[in-house]
Write a structure and sequence with these properties.
Elements (H helix, E strand, L loop, with lengths): L2 E11 L2 H11 L3 E4 L5 E4 L7 E5 L4 E9 L2 H13 L5 E2 L2 H7 L1 E8 L5 E8 L24 E5 L3 H11 L3 E9 L5 E8 L7 E4 L9 E5 L3 H14 L3 E8 L5 E6 L5 E6 L13 E3 L3 E4 L9
Parallel strand pairs: 1-4, 5-8, 9-12, 10-17, 13-16
Antiparallel strand pairs: 1-5, 2-3, 3-4, 6-7, 7-8, 9-13, 10-11, 11-12, 14-15, 14-18, 15-16
């Protein structure tokens, strides 16, 4: 067995308090201060789902991917080493900050840093949203999904599928400069329609977008109200996606990438519903991308 879920994201921030305000007052996450100045943003019983650390620029540093047990963790580590992938074992300080029992780091061919871990450590303190979000849809399907840039597209999608065990969910081509088409491959590691997407496009922040899922449309609407009250512009309007049926909107995070905030994501039995398809549009309706604000 391989990776079972997207467990967390590690974000670098030039101003951690911007993430504190965005994470708590807009996304509805709970904030916990770490021992060394880092910010832990909670969405469930885990110690965190987004870890914000001080950095010289705003960006995604790495994505954390969970393996269910130590045997699967060691087997995956050995398989990567045998394939010639450079693997760096985490020291005690990193394990403590990530709240995990074991972890190693590697990178895909496009340079995306991957943290593979097992044994999350938490006291399972009850999640209480500071703005009243009832819950986030997580559990065994993980924290949501992340879309990573992959300019070395063929090598990168091969890496995630062949070495890390992801299955291909669906394919989308979007317009690119010069009349070309950029590929996006959506991939799964559990019943969530996709936990990962690889996008054939540059993204200086190291992430195209992350997604958090809430239980119903009312929570999405309440988040839209919070954005309006705070005067924060949308990145993309409310819409419903073709591939996973998610009804969502997008907003720019302090990290320089977008947050998709939605509900109603598709859950699949891949052994029964395993047909890979290509969509020719991203959404049934909505999701009109807007001009980014001037920084």
């Amino acid at each position: 067995m391989g990776i079972s879920q997207l467990g967390y994201l590690v974000v670098g921030a030039t101003d951690i308090d911007r993430w504190r305000a965005f994470g708590t007052q807009i996304a509805g996450l709970a904030a916990v201060d770490g021992a060394n100045g880092e910010l832990l943003l909670k969405a469930d019983g885990r110690a965190f789902r987004v870890l914000v650390v001080a950095d010289e620029r705003d960006r995604l540093i790495s994505s954390g991917w969970e393996v269910s047990n130590s045997a699967d963790f060691e087997a995956l580590r050995d398989r990567l080493i045998a394939a010639g992938v450079e693997v760096v074992d985490a020291d005690l300080a990193v394990l403590s900050q990530r709240h995990v029992t074991g972890m190693f780091t590697c990178a895909d061919p496009s340079g995306n840093v991957i943290e593979v871990y097992w044994g999350p450590i938490s006291d399972f303190t009850r999640f209480v949203s500071p703005v009243g979000v009832a819950a986030f849809v997580m559990g065994s399907m993980g924290m949501g999904h992340v879309v990573l840039p992959a300019l070395k597209f063929e090598e990168t999608q091969h890496f995630w599928r062949e070495h890390l065990g992801f299955g291909l969910s669906d394919i989308l081509h979007i317009p690119a400069p010069g009349g070309a088409k950029a590929r996006i491959h959506f991939m799964h590691c559990n019943p969530r329609q996709h936990s990962l997407a690889l996008a054939e496009m540059p993204q200086p922040a190291g992430c195209v977008h992350m997604m958090l899922e809430v239980p119903d449309l009312d929570e999405v609407g309440l988040a839209l109200d919070r954005l309006s009250e705070a005067g924060i512009p949308l990145a993309a309007t409310l819409g419903r996606h073709v591939n996973d049926n998610m009804t969502s909107f997008y907003v720019w995070t302090p990290g320089g990438f977008a947050l998709e905030y939605g509900c109603g994501g598709m859950v699949k039995n891949w052994e029964v519903e395993g047909t890979v398809f290509e969509t020719t549009r991203g959404s049934h309706w909505g999701h009109q991308w807007l001009t980014p604000p001037t920084l």
